[in-house]
Write a structure and sequence with these properties.
single chain; alpha/beta; UDP-N-acetylmuramoyl-L-alanine:D-glutamate ligase; four-stranded mixed beta sheet
Amino acid sequence: MEKIITFGEIMLRLSTPDYSTINQSHSFLVNYGGGEANVAVALSHLGHHCYFMSKLPPNQLGDGAVSHLQANGVNTDYIVRGSTTLGIYFLETGFGGRPSKVIYNRKHSAITRVSEDEFDWEKIFKDATWFHISGITLALGERVRKVAFRAAKEAKKYGVKVSFDFNYRSKLWSVEEAKPVYQNFMNYVDIVFASFWDANTILEIPLDKGFEDKTLSEKRRNVFPKMIKKYNLNYIFGTDRVVFSATENSLAGYYFALKGDELTWELTEPIRFNIFDRIGGGDAFASGVIHGLLKNFENPAYAVRFGLNTSVLKHTIYGDASIFSVEDVEAFMSANGSAEVVR
Protein backbone atom coordinates (compact mmCIF):
# COMPACT_ATOMS: atom_id res chain seq x y z
CA MET A 1 0.00 0.00 0.00
CA GLU A 2 1.27 3.48 -0.89
CA LYS A 3 2.39 5.74 1.95
CA ILE A 4 1.38 9.32 1.20
CA ILE A 5 2.64 12.27 3.25
CA THR A 6 1.06 15.73 3.27
CA PHE A 7 2.25 18.78 5.21
CA GLY A 8 0.25 21.88 6.04
CA GLU A 9 -2.16 23.56 8.41
CA ILE A 10 -5.50 22.20 9.52
CA MET A 11 -7.89 24.86 10.78
CA LEU A 12 -11.21 25.19 12.54
CA ARG A 13 -13.84 26.19 10.00
CA LEU A 14 -16.80 28.26 11.18
CA SER A 15 -19.41 28.59 8.43
CA THR A 16 -22.66 30.49 8.37
CA PRO A 17 -25.88 28.44 8.39
CA ASP A 18 -28.61 28.66 5.77
CA TYR A 19 -26.58 30.87 3.40
CA SER A 20 -26.67 33.78 5.87
CA THR A 21 -24.00 36.48 5.95
CA ILE A 22 -21.43 36.65 8.74
CA ASN A 23 -23.08 39.82 10.04
CA GLN A 24 -26.43 38.06 10.31
CA SER A 25 -25.16 34.93 12.03
CA HIS A 26 -25.52 34.23 15.75
CA SER A 27 -24.17 30.68 15.44
CA PHE A 28 -21.80 28.85 13.14
CA LEU A 29 -21.41 25.32 11.78
CA VAL A 30 -18.12 23.76 12.92
CA ASN A 31 -15.79 21.66 10.80
CA TYR A 32 -12.04 21.14 10.35
CA GLY A 33 -10.16 21.61 7.11
CA GLY A 34 -7.07 22.77 5.26
CA GLY A 35 -5.62 22.07 1.83
CA GLU A 36 -3.16 19.29 2.54
CA ALA A 37 -5.34 17.78 5.27
CA ASN A 38 -8.22 17.64 2.78
CA VAL A 39 -6.01 15.80 0.28
CA ALA A 40 -4.98 13.29 2.95
CA VAL A 41 -8.61 12.68 3.95
CA ALA A 42 -9.74 12.24 0.35
CA LEU A 43 -6.91 9.86 -0.52
CA SER A 44 -7.59 7.85 2.62
CA HIS A 45 -11.17 7.33 1.45
CA LEU A 46 -9.76 6.28 -1.94
CA GLY A 47 -7.88 3.46 -0.21
CA HIS A 48 -4.44 4.95 0.40
CA HIS A 49 -2.32 5.00 3.55
CA CYS A 50 -2.04 8.72 4.38
CA TYR A 51 -0.08 10.64 7.00
CA PHE A 52 -0.54 14.31 7.83
CA MET A 53 2.38 16.41 9.09
CA SER A 54 1.61 19.53 11.08
CA LYS A 55 1.80 21.25 14.46
CA LEU A 56 -1.28 21.62 16.64
CA PRO A 57 -1.89 23.13 20.07
CA PRO A 58 -2.09 20.68 23.01
CA ASN A 59 -5.69 21.59 23.85
CA GLN A 60 -9.21 20.52 22.96
CA LEU A 61 -9.15 22.34 19.62
CA GLY A 62 -5.99 20.48 18.62
CA ASP A 63 -7.53 17.25 19.89
CA GLY A 64 -10.61 17.92 17.75
CA ALA A 65 -8.49 18.31 14.62
CA VAL A 66 -6.65 15.06 15.38
CA SER A 67 -9.96 13.27 15.95
CA HIS A 68 -11.29 14.58 12.63
CA LEU A 69 -8.27 13.21 10.78
CA GLN A 70 -8.29 9.87 12.55
CA ALA A 71 -12.03 9.45 11.97
CA ASN A 72 -11.28 9.76 8.24
CA GLY A 73 -8.49 7.19 8.30
CA VAL A 74 -5.53 9.60 8.29
CA ASN A 75 -2.50 8.66 10.41
CA THR A 76 -1.55 11.47 12.83
CA ASP A 77 1.78 10.09 14.10
CA TYR A 78 3.64 12.96 12.40
CA ILE A 79 1.68 15.74 14.07
CA VAL A 80 3.66 17.52 16.79
CA ARG A 81 2.00 19.46 19.59
CA GLY A 82 2.90 22.87 20.97
CA SER A 83 1.95 26.55 21.14
CA THR A 84 -1.61 27.57 22.06
CA THR A 85 -3.58 28.61 18.97
CA LEU A 86 -5.42 26.76 16.23
CA GLY A 87 -5.99 28.63 12.96
CA ILE A 88 -9.59 29.58 12.29
CA TYR A 89 -11.39 30.66 9.17
CA PHE A 90 -14.91 32.00 8.77
CA LEU A 91 -16.90 31.01 5.70
CA GLU A 92 -19.84 33.00 4.44
CA THR A 93 -21.51 30.68 1.96
CA GLY A 94 -22.67 32.44 -1.20
CA PHE A 95 -25.97 31.96 -2.95
CA GLY A 96 -27.12 32.92 -6.46
CA GLY A 97 -25.28 36.04 -7.55
CA ARG A 98 -23.67 36.60 -4.13
CA PRO A 99 -20.25 34.86 -3.93
CA SER A 100 -18.84 33.11 -0.90
CA LYS A 101 -16.49 35.02 1.40
CA VAL A 102 -13.63 33.79 3.61
CA ILE A 103 -12.05 35.60 6.57
CA TYR A 104 -8.86 34.12 8.06
CA ASN A 105 -7.78 34.25 11.70
CA ARG A 106 -4.56 32.25 11.55
CA LYS A 107 -1.64 34.67 11.93
CA HIS A 108 -0.20 33.20 15.16
CA SER A 109 -1.41 29.62 14.85
CA ALA A 110 0.62 26.68 16.16
CA ILE A 111 2.05 25.76 12.77
CA THR A 112 3.80 29.13 12.54
CA ARG A 113 5.92 27.94 15.51
CA VAL A 114 6.98 24.70 13.82
CA SER A 115 10.69 23.80 13.42
CA GLU A 116 12.71 21.22 11.48
CA ASP A 117 14.06 19.44 14.56
CA GLU A 118 10.55 18.41 15.66
CA PHE A 119 10.34 15.70 12.96
CA ASP A 120 12.13 12.39 12.40
CA TRP A 121 12.78 12.87 8.70
CA GLU A 122 14.15 9.40 7.98
CA LYS A 123 11.17 7.75 9.67
CA ILE A 124 8.76 9.90 7.69
CA PHE A 125 10.22 9.54 4.21
CA LYS A 126 12.33 6.40 3.97
CA ASP A 127 9.34 4.22 3.02
CA ALA A 128 7.07 6.93 1.59
CA THR A 129 5.62 6.91 -1.93
CA TRP A 130 4.30 10.45 -2.37
CA PHE A 131 4.58 13.89 -0.77
CA HIS A 132 1.99 16.64 -1.35
CA ILE A 133 2.07 20.30 -0.33
CA SER A 134 0.55 23.59 -1.49
CA GLY A 135 1.46 27.23 -1.86
CA ILE A 136 -0.83 28.11 1.05
CA THR A 137 1.62 26.40 3.39
CA LEU A 138 4.55 28.30 1.87
CA ALA A 139 2.70 31.54 2.66
CA LEU A 140 2.51 30.89 6.41
CA GLY A 141 5.87 32.38 7.34
CA GLU A 142 9.60 31.71 7.30
CA ARG A 143 9.55 28.95 9.93
CA VAL A 144 6.91 27.00 8.02
CA ARG A 145 8.78 27.52 4.76
CA LYS A 146 11.97 26.06 6.27
CA VAL A 147 10.10 22.91 7.24
CA ALA A 148 8.39 22.76 3.84
CA PHE A 149 11.69 23.01 1.97
CA ARG A 150 13.30 20.45 4.28
CA ALA A 151 10.42 18.06 3.66
CA ALA A 152 10.71 18.48 -0.11
CA LYS A 153 14.47 17.90 0.04
CA GLU A 154 14.01 14.79 2.16
CA ALA A 155 11.38 13.52 -0.27
CA LYS A 156 13.80 13.89 -3.18
CA LYS A 157 16.57 12.27 -1.12
CA TYR A 158 14.45 9.14 -0.67
CA GLY A 159 13.08 9.10 -4.22
CA VAL A 160 9.56 10.16 -3.24
CA LYS A 161 7.33 11.83 -5.83
CA VAL A 162 6.48 15.45 -4.92
CA SER A 163 3.26 17.14 -6.01
CA PHE A 164 2.66 20.84 -5.49
CA ASP A 165 -0.60 22.77 -5.77
CA PHE A 166 0.13 26.45 -6.45
CA ASN A 167 -2.90 27.65 -4.47
CA TYR A 168 -1.68 31.25 -4.39
CA ARG A 169 -3.71 33.32 -1.91
CA SER A 170 -3.47 37.11 -2.13
CA LYS A 171 -4.91 37.41 1.40
CA LEU A 172 -1.80 35.68 2.76
CA TRP A 173 1.02 37.38 0.79
CA SER A 174 1.76 39.50 -2.25
CA VAL A 175 2.83 38.21 -5.65
CA GLU A 176 6.24 39.82 -5.20
CA GLU A 177 6.73 38.04 -1.87
CA ALA A 178 5.61 34.73 -3.34
CA LYS A 179 7.67 34.75 -6.57
CA PRO A 180 11.14 33.82 -5.21
CA VAL A 181 9.70 31.22 -2.84
CA TYR A 182 7.66 29.46 -5.52
CA GLN A 183 10.50 29.64 -8.04
CA ASN A 184 12.92 28.03 -5.59
CA PHE A 185 10.46 25.40 -4.41
CA MET A 186 9.73 24.29 -7.98
CA ASN A 187 13.21 22.75 -8.11
CA TYR A 188 11.92 19.92 -5.89
CA VAL A 189 8.60 19.25 -7.64
CA ASP A 190 7.57 16.43 -10.00
CA ILE A 191 3.85 17.06 -10.54
CA VAL A 192 2.26 20.48 -10.30
CA PHE A 193 -1.30 21.80 -10.17
CA ALA A 194 -1.11 25.21 -11.82
CA SER A 195 -2.76 27.70 -14.14
CA PHE A 196 -1.40 29.84 -16.96
CA TRP A 197 -1.43 32.80 -14.54
CA ASP A 198 0.72 30.85 -12.07
CA ALA A 199 3.27 30.02 -14.75
CA ASN A 200 3.33 33.44 -16.39
CA THR A 201 3.04 35.70 -13.32
CA ILE A 202 4.52 33.83 -10.35
CA LEU A 203 7.15 31.79 -12.20
CA GLU A 204 7.67 34.62 -14.72
CA ILE A 205 7.74 32.30 -17.73
CA PRO A 206 7.09 34.61 -20.67
CA LEU A 207 4.76 34.22 -23.61
CA ASP A 208 6.39 34.20 -27.02
CA LYS A 209 5.88 37.31 -29.10
CA GLY A 210 2.48 37.37 -30.75
CA PHE A 211 0.72 35.22 -28.14
CA GLU A 212 -0.55 38.10 -26.00
CA ASP A 213 -3.96 38.10 -27.72
CA LYS A 214 -4.31 34.34 -28.14
CA THR A 215 -6.85 32.17 -26.33
CA LEU A 216 -6.14 30.83 -22.86
CA SER A 217 -5.64 27.35 -24.29
CA GLU A 218 -3.09 28.66 -26.81
CA LYS A 219 -1.27 30.59 -24.07
CA ARG A 220 -1.01 27.44 -21.96
CA ARG A 221 0.39 25.49 -24.91
CA ASN A 222 3.02 28.18 -25.34
CA VAL A 223 4.09 28.58 -21.70
CA PHE A 224 3.63 25.13 -20.11
CA PRO A 225 6.26 23.33 -22.25
CA LYS A 226 8.83 25.89 -21.09
CA MET A 227 7.76 25.34 -17.50
CA ILE A 228 8.02 21.56 -17.84
CA LYS A 229 11.51 21.80 -19.35
CA LYS A 230 12.78 24.38 -16.87
CA TYR A 231 11.76 22.40 -13.80
CA ASN A 232 11.95 18.86 -15.27
CA LEU A 233 8.30 18.18 -14.45
CA ASN A 234 6.40 14.99 -15.15
CA TYR A 235 3.00 16.66 -15.50
CA ILE A 236 1.03 19.88 -15.08
CA PHE A 237 -2.64 19.50 -14.12
CA GLY A 238 -5.38 22.06 -13.63
CA THR A 239 -9.03 22.97 -14.07
CA ASP A 240 -11.07 25.54 -15.94
CA ARG A 241 -14.06 26.79 -13.97
CA VAL A 242 -17.03 28.70 -15.36
CA VAL A 243 -19.18 30.41 -12.72
CA PHE A 244 -22.86 30.72 -13.65
CA SER A 245 -23.78 31.56 -10.06
CA ALA A 246 -22.49 30.82 -6.55
CA THR A 247 -24.50 27.61 -6.66
CA GLU A 248 -23.96 26.51 -10.26
CA ASN A 249 -20.57 26.09 -11.97
CA SER A 250 -18.90 23.96 -14.59
CA LEU A 251 -15.44 22.40 -14.47
CA ALA A 252 -13.12 20.96 -17.11
CA GLY A 253 -9.74 19.40 -16.40
CA TYR A 254 -6.46 19.52 -18.27
CA TYR A 255 -3.02 17.96 -18.22
CA PHE A 256 0.24 18.76 -20.02
CA ALA A 257 3.37 16.62 -20.44
CA LEU A 258 6.41 16.40 -22.69
CA LYS A 259 7.68 13.21 -24.30
CA GLY A 260 11.02 14.30 -25.63
CA ASP A 261 10.15 17.53 -27.40
CA GLU A 262 6.58 16.44 -28.18
CA LEU A 263 3.87 18.14 -26.14
CA THR A 264 0.99 15.94 -25.06
CA TRP A 265 -2.02 17.61 -23.53
CA GLU A 266 -5.77 17.39 -23.16
CA LEU A 267 -8.65 19.56 -22.01
CA THR A 268 -11.65 17.45 -21.02
CA GLU A 269 -15.27 18.20 -21.73
CA PRO A 270 -16.75 20.35 -18.94
CA ILE A 271 -19.16 19.01 -16.35
CA ARG A 272 -21.90 21.41 -15.22
CA PHE A 273 -23.21 20.91 -11.69
CA ASN A 274 -24.98 22.42 -8.69
CA ILE A 275 -22.99 23.34 -5.58
CA PHE A 276 -23.74 22.51 -1.98
CA ASP A 277 -20.27 23.41 -0.62
CA ARG A 278 -17.50 24.70 -2.90
CA ILE A 279 -14.65 24.65 -0.34
CA GLY A 280 -12.08 21.94 -1.05
CA GLY A 281 -12.95 21.39 -4.70
CA GLY A 282 -9.36 21.95 -5.80
CA ASP A 283 -8.05 19.64 -3.08
CA ALA A 284 -10.47 16.94 -4.26
CA PHE A 285 -9.19 17.39 -7.82
CA ALA A 286 -5.59 17.01 -6.64
CA SER A 287 -6.41 13.90 -4.61
CA GLY A 288 -8.19 12.30 -7.55
CA VAL A 289 -5.29 13.01 -9.90
CA ILE A 290 -2.77 11.63 -7.39
CA HIS A 291 -4.86 8.48 -7.02
CA GLY A 292 -5.08 8.10 -10.79
CA LEU A 293 -1.34 8.53 -11.25
CA LEU A 294 -0.51 6.08 -8.47
CA LYS A 295 -2.76 3.46 -10.02
CA ASN A 296 -1.43 4.01 -13.53
CA PHE A 297 1.37 6.54 -13.86
CA GLU A 298 1.39 6.25 -17.64
CA ASN A 299 -2.21 7.35 -18.09
CA PRO A 300 -2.70 11.04 -17.23
CA ALA A 301 -5.91 11.06 -19.28
CA TYR A 302 -7.51 8.75 -16.73
CA ALA A 303 -5.98 10.68 -13.81
CA VAL A 304 -7.38 14.03 -14.96
CA ARG A 305 -10.85 12.55 -15.41
CA PHE A 306 -10.77 10.83 -12.05
CA GLY A 307 -9.64 14.08 -10.44
CA LEU A 308 -12.31 16.12 -12.22
CA ASN A 309 -15.11 13.79 -11.17
CA THR A 310 -13.84 13.62 -7.59
CA SER A 311 -13.91 17.42 -7.50
CA VAL A 312 -17.44 17.66 -8.89
CA LEU A 313 -18.67 15.12 -6.33
CA LYS A 314 -16.97 17.04 -3.52
CA HIS A 315 -19.05 20.11 -4.39
CA THR A 316 -22.19 18.13 -3.52
CA ILE A 317 -21.39 17.51 0.18
CA TYR A 318 -20.78 19.62 3.29
CA GLY A 319 -17.24 20.05 4.59
CA ASP A 320 -13.77 20.66 3.23
CA ALA A 321 -12.82 17.18 2.02
CA SER A 322 -14.06 14.49 -0.35
CA ILE A 323 -15.12 11.28 1.39
CA PHE A 324 -15.99 9.29 -1.73
CA SER A 325 -14.66 5.82 -2.51
CA VAL A 326 -13.12 4.72 -5.79
CA GLU A 327 -16.37 2.93 -6.60
CA ASP A 328 -18.37 6.12 -5.98
CA VAL A 329 -16.18 8.16 -8.32
CA GLU A 330 -16.05 5.55 -11.06
CA ALA A 331 -19.84 5.12 -10.95
CA PHE A 332 -20.23 8.88 -11.33
CA MET A 333 -17.76 8.87 -14.21
CA SER A 334 -19.78 6.19 -15.98
CA ALA A 335 -23.04 8.03 -15.38
CA ASN A 336 -21.83 11.28 -16.96
CA GLY A 337 -19.83 9.70 -19.79
CA SER A 338 -16.35 10.46 -18.38
CA ALA A 339 -15.14 6.87 -18.13
CA GLU A 340 -14.16 6.16 -21.73
CA VAL A 341 -10.41 6.22 -20.97
CA VAL A 342 -9.08 2.79 -19.99
CA ARG A 343 -6.67 2.74 -17.06
